[in-house]
């Protein structure tokens, strides 16, 4: 099984974030489309599911930013917050495509790390 501590390479935490970011969102979205296509968009059940899913993703992102583990501990809080802001902006500008936001944010993190040191 591959874990966060599986590899001792500088690039591994960034790849791990990309993979985890994709798995945590896209797989569940596709399953939701397949299973929930019979529900009305504004049904109480679907509104609740969306709220819980959004809260969980937001909590994971906040934990990674404010209380990082592993290699992310070596990245300044300012750089982590800047990467999130730029990634979110890219997500909005890119037509609300999650992968665009994730790739841009990870790119900012890597670029910031390379520039700082």
TrEMBL record:
> Keywords for this entry?
Membrane, Transmembrane, Transmembrane helix
What domain of life is recorded for the organism? Bacteria
Annotated transmembrane regions? 12-31, 43-65, 77-93, 98-116
Q: Which residues form the signal peptide?
A: none
An example of a Pfam family matching this protein is AzlD
In its UniProt entry, what is this protein called? AzlD domain-containing protein
Q: Provide the species name.
A: Hoeflea algicola
């Amino acid at each position: 099984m591959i874990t966060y501590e599986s590899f001792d390479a500088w690039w591994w935490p960034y790849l791990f974030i990309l993979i985890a970011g994709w798995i945590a969102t896209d797989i569940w979205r596709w399953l939701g489309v397949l299973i929930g296509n019979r529900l009305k968009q504004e049904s109480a059940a679907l509104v609740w599911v969306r709220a819980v899913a959004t809260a969980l993703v937001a909590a994971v992102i906040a934990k990674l930013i404010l209380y990082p583990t592993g290699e992310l501990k070596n990245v300044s809080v300012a750089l982590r917050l800047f990467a999130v802001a730029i990634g979110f902006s890219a997500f909005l500008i890119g037509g609300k495509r999650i992968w665009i936001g994730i790739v841009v944010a990870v790119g900012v993190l890597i670029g910031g790390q390379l520039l700082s040191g």
